Amino acid sequence: MAALHSLPFSTAASSQAQGRAVCDVPGVWRGSAWSSDGLSQRTRPSGHALLDAQLPGGGWPLGAMAEVLQPAQAAREWPLVLPGLARAIADGAQGRIVLIAPPHEPFAPALQAAGLPAQRLSRVLAGAHQGTEAAWAGEQALRCRDVLAVLAWLPQAHPQTLRRLQLAAAQHGRWLWVFRPDTLREQSSPAPLRLWVQGGGGQLQVRFIKRRGAPLLEPVVLPLRNAGLAAVLDAQARRKRQAQEDADRLLPPTHAPGVVHALDRIAPTRR
Question: Hey, what domains does the chain have and what are their CATH numbers?
């Protein structure tokens, strides 16, 4: 007990000085320094102004994993990341967008309408050992010079696998999104940015589980579809309805069978 009382308490000034000294070490940052002025990490706009206002650096990080957690079969990833990809391409960004083990084939007309040309996409299908093969393919894609971004669906990836992907993204400065089920949100992750995305009522609710800087308790609410994507989907729905109506008009009319009487039949000729 005497030893405890003999330790001097640091003054506020000395604590601030020590804090400044620690923050001078490369790779160490203050929890409150999450804005673009406080972080030197490179970013690109997400295409969502409300989201950029809360993302460290004002956009999606380059050279860092963004882990997106969502309910199974929710498919909220494209409304979240598509505006940022489209804006980067419109601004002249080169390189391909590599999709690793996507659960569904992308709908090319909708992506095209939103500003993402189909010829910029490369889709990698995983085999039976999806977790191992898909993660390996994602790591190789991050090392390719002509790759702009990697989108990987890795529901079964282990933390060590995610760590390798994070290191590859950091070494080569690539965009990297990893999509996983939200049942894993309590699991530790090497991703500097973790988002929990839910949808409903034509909106996306984005909760920050982990980010560099101060925590954010309230979700960021975003529109579920942008104008270009909504126009394409609406046009597709109209075409389906029109095709169904045309098919219905071509069908011959059906008549309910009536009562058959014996007098309706022609009597056989007697000889």
Answer: 44-233 (3.40.50.300)
> Which amino acid appears at position 49 of this protein?
A
Q: How many C-beta atoms surround the C-beta of residue 167 within 10 A?
A: 14
Phi and psi angles of residue 205, each rounded to the nearest 5 degrees, phi first: -110, 115
Phi and psi for 167 in degrees, rounded to 5? -65, -40
Encode 80-105: b = buried (16+ Cβ within 10 Å), e = exposed.
bbbbbbbbbbeeeeebbbbbbbbeee
Work out the pLDDT band at 248, boundaries 50, 70, 90: confident
Q: Are 46 and 59 in contact (CB under 8 A)?
A: yes
Q: Please report the beta strands in 114-217, taking only residues with DSSP state E, as ranges in sequence order.
A: 121-124, 147-153, 175-181, 193-200, 203-210
Q: What does the radius of gyration of the chain's CA atoms come to, in whole angstroms?
A: 28
Q: Model's pTM, two decimal places?
A: 0.71
Can you tell me the distance from the alpha carbon of 9 to that of 259, in angstroms, rounded to the nearest whole number? Answer: 105
- Nearest Cα neighbor of 185 from 24, 72, 17, 50 is 72
At 38-74, the pLDDT tens digits run: 445 699 999 999 999 999 999 999 999 999 999 987 7
Question: Is residue 163 classed as helix, strand or coil in its secondary structure?
Answer: helix
